[in-house]
Amino acid sequence: MQLPLATLLAILPAAAVAQSGSGRTTRYWDCCKPSCAWPGKGPAPVRTCDRNDNPLYDGGNTRSGCDAGGSAYMCSNQSPWAVSDDLAYGWAAVNIQGSNEREWCCACYELTFTSGPVAGKRMIVQASNTGGDLGNNHFDIAMPGGGVGIFNACTSQYGAPPNGWGERYGGIRSRSECDAFPEKLKPGCYWRFDWFMNADNPNVNWRKVSCPAELAERSGCSR
């Protein structure tokens, strides 16, 4: 049976989306409501929290803490953690070439680091965000103290300095700086210097995988 042209055009782009490849990473933690927390971008909105880090069960409709009058923020439990010496879990802002948020929000990707001190280690990240400054096949890993980047809600949520903790891009420089962080953000900050070995934007090979239950439980979303 020959399919109508409109049906073919709808199917072909999705079929062409890569399920694996090579890419790059950066790091951030801006405390803002992640893009995938808005309704309609994934199977369910990624969970957000109020200023006191209490989960919001709002259907994704609360304005981001990055906006004036907004009160939805990244939840502290969406920080990375070590599963073993060579495997970690976490979240990332994502841009997959040839794809879009409706296809990657809440999806999970296994990153195998190919450069820097973490070469050979693996991390499974769930896509919770995106960014206009991300290149193709780019994973901006969420880690407290990683730099706020373009936006900053950490000042309104936690009283962080105007440019966040450390430099606006790149964040803090030493593990000892994590000691002054809010208690709930300290483990994710220490993770950067312990498991992640303070790697500076390592390259990766990536592939799409099923989401571990631990990630889906914290984010409230999975594919």
Automatic annotation (TrEMBL):
Keywords: Carbohydrate metabolism, Cellulose degradation, Glycosidase, Hydrolase, Polysaccharide degradation, Signal. Residues 25-36 form the Glycosyl hydrolases family 45 active site domain. This is Cellulase. Transmembrane segments: none annotated. InterPro entries: GH45_Enzymes, Glyco_hydro_45, RlpA-like_sf. Its EC number is 3.2.1.4. Gene3D superfamilies: RlpA-like domain (2.40.40.10). The active site is at 30 (nucleophile). Residues 1-18 form the signal peptide. It comes from the Eukaryota. It comes from Remersonia thermophila. Belongs to the glycosyl hydrolase 45 (cellulase K) family. It catalyses: Endohydrolysis of (1->4)-beta-D-glucosidic linkages in cellulose, lichenin and cereal beta-D-glucans.
